[in-house]
Amino acid sequence: MKTIIWDIDDVLNALTRSWLENAWLPAHPECKISYEDLTENPPHKILGIDRLEYLTSLDAFRLSSQAEGMTPDAGLMNWFATHGTDFRHIALTARPRGTVAVAIAWVLKHFGRWFQTFSYVPAQRPGDPMGHPDKEKHEFLSWLSKADVFIDDRTLNIEKARKLGIRTFQVAQPWNTSTRTMMDILKELIA
Fold first, then answer.
1. Considering the entire predicted model, what is its pTM?
2. What is each CA distance from 175 to 37, 77, 104, 153, 158, in whole angstroms?
């Protein structure tokens, strides 16, 4: 049975779009940036703010009831209902420690029937303690040595996983050059 490692934010959910449309833009009505304009991630330069202001806003959204209420794409849920038991599934996210519990709860709420494992590499924030052995996703993947497939939205994560010999799929987002939608990827997984 093949093991799929899934990123959470912007792969299993639409975190960045939800944050922009439900938190940032309502709080900054003068901002005329659309989701499609976010051609860099993190998008702080595009938004004309410093990185810490962006991260503070994003992390606050991650802890909000709006983020808790995000629903996965219906096509993704249909795929899991039909094919989820054909694979082992591991969620792997890069988040600050203070937001990991809500991510676990979100994954379990929507995908708990299929995911056996949840892991994270801490996204460092000012004042966070050090002490985690993996600083990047590829380090966790190397240690795990069980991944057959890795699905993520970040180009660097995809490139590093590919160097480990893992089959990779990059979900198309404005900040990457991939043209594969989630539906394209799901079809390839069962081909």
1. 0.96
2. 9, 24, 25, 8, 13
